[in-house]
Design goal:
Blueprint: H1 6-9, H2 21-49, H3 55-79, H4 83-89, H5 91-99, H6 109-138, H7 143-164, H8 171-182, H9 195-286
Helix pairs in contact: 2-3, 2-6, 3-4, 3-5, 4-5, 5-6, 7-8, 7-9
Length: 293
């Protein structure tokens, strides 16, 4: 039995990579819907606290979210090749379907407290597809290490800028200015005035351009690899057909060789048979006729 991953233990593994294409397409579709829900939920809670939306809108959104989880679980279980394994590795969906069923919200204040934790679980579950895709992206071409180095370097540059230029009142202002510079935002609320500070700013600008190039290259490599992964089954089928064709050609050549040998054997037998017939005739002619007396 293979070791379970962390996502499988927490019931958020999603669909297996070797599942059918139709199941993977539906999985990506539901991931997109969950991304929209992930952005909507914090906005909904904020608007409800501010009193800008009523309880009816909240109830409608809750039903929509519940149906989203229900339809994803039902559809992907139906399309999955290993249905029991899918449910086993995605038990969190079942928990959300049961615990977040909207009519249960009217149970009382005790369940309202538990609902807060359920909301946190729902947010984590909604963000899981984005987290997994981001993790895949960061694991390619040491992009995760590059991101950490860039983050640390930007923070250090902001702190050093505070010591290089008196325009920055605190290290936090230096860090704020550093992030503005590397991201090419440039609000202009804080700018260096000394020569050392301006030279340091040029270095940060070049660092930001380099990092932007690395991010773009990694995204391009990620998309190209996805296209190649989708083409892999077709390449495997084409390779299999070519191997079958080679085997058929080999079999055909062997059949031709066998036929040629059989022809030789048949010709040799026919030749030996005709020679034996000629010898028999010769012997019959050569025998002396018996004397009549």
């Amino acid at each position: 039995m293979k070791n379970m991953t962390v996502l499988e233990m927490f019931g958020m593994a999603g669909l297996c990579p070797n599942e059918k294409k139709v199941a993977q397409r539906w999985s990506r579709f539901f991931d997109l819907l969950m991304l929209f829900a992930l952005f909507w939920l914090p906005i909904q809670w904020y608007l409800y606290i501010q009193g800008e939306i009523n309880l009816e809108v909240i109830t409608t959104a809750a039903w929509a979210l519940w149906w989203l989880f229900f339809l994803e679980t039902f559809t992907l279980t139906l399309l999955s090749k290993h249905k029991v394994m899918y449910l086993k590795h995605n038990w969190m969906n079942i928990l959300i379907i049961i615990a977040a069923f909207p009519p249960m919200w009217a149970i009382g204040s005790a369940y309202a407290v538990a609902l807060r934790y359920i909301r946190v679980i729902i947010l984590i579950r909604l963000g899981m597809p984005v987290f997994k895709r981001s993790l895949r992206l960061l694991s390619r071409n040491s992009f995760g290490t590059t991101l950490i180095v860039f983050f640390v370097a930007t923070m250090l540059c902001g702190i050093l800028a505070y010591y290089f230029d008196p325009s920055f009142g605190s290290p936090w202002e230096g860090i704020w200015w550093a992030w503005q510079t590397v991201t090419s935002v440039g609000y202009g609320d804080i700018v260096p005035h000394t020569v050392a500070g301006k030279v340091f700013a040029v270095f940060l600008m070049l660092l930001g351009v380099a990092f932007l190039s690395i991010v773009t290259a990694n995204f391009a490599a990620f998309l190209i690899e996805r296209v190649r992964e989708e083409e892999k089954p077709e390449k495997r089928i084409l390779k299999y057909l070519r191997n079958v064709e080679k085997r058929l050609v080999t079999i055909e050549k062997g059949q031709l060789m066998v036929n040629a040998k059989l022809d030789k054997i048949m010709k040799a037998k026919a030749k030996s048979s005709s020679e034996s017939k000629v010898e028999n005739k010769t012997e019959n002619h050569a025998e002396p006729k018996p004397d009549a007396n």
